[in-house]
Specification:
175 residues; alpha+beta; 3 helices; 2 domains; eight-stranded antiparallel sheet; Multidrug-efflux Transporter 1 Regulator Bmrr, Chain A
């Protein structure tokens, strides 16, 4: 039988390395939430209904990603109307970019307008493997809105700035 102290030291070393990696990837980064002024968000993209395993979902993302690459400065946006709980659950998502950033025709794409005067915005900076869950982000945003006496529209727009930076916009219902 091996020495129990050596085993304990190895386990402690592994835990320290995993913890260090988690921190380096942004695992403990806070969700920065604020209220901002905004204008209507006009997007062009593809709407998808189906399962996450379907090739049509990947095709939809590739199609919009190709349009994004052809239009420098554009930002990928997603709106999940129904988020899948598992790989075989039905989902409903819109994937697009800002209409103003697109040069040329978008006849094969759907146009989507999200009304916005003020929005609660959550900024997340973390690697996708350690990023907080969408449910946790939405809960924090709803809690912020409630504390400010605001009511959110039932729509959350994800702005995928890069691999490690995401903004989630939730427009406020204006009375």
């Amino acid at each position: 039988m091996k020495n129990p102290i050596k085993i304990a030291l190895w386990i402690a070393l592994i835990l320290i390395m995993v913890g260090f990696g988690y921190v380096q990837l942004g695992g403990f980064s806070p969700i920065d939430i604020s209220l901002v002024e905004c204008t209507d968000l006009k997007l062009v993209g593809v709407e998808y209904k189906g399962t996450p395993q379907d090739e049509m979902l990947a095709s939809s993302f590739r199609n919009v990603e190709d349009t994004k690459l052809a239009n420098p400065g554009s930002i990928l946006h997603t709106i999940y109307y129904i988020e899948p709980a598992g790989k075989s659950d039905t989902m409903h998502v819109f994937v697009g970019i800002q209409r103003a950033a697109v040069r040329g025709s978008v006849s094969a794409m759907t146009e989507k307008k999200v009304s916005c005067r003020r929005a609660v915005v959550a900024k997340i900076s973390a690697h996708r493997f350690v990023m907080p869950s969408p449910l946790r982000i939405k809960e924090k945003m709803k809690e912020f809105a409630s504390n400010e006496g605001l009511v959110l529209q039932d729509i959350f727009v994800d702005k995928l700035l890069d691999d490690s930076n995401v903004e989630v916009w939730a427009p406020v219902i204006e009375s």
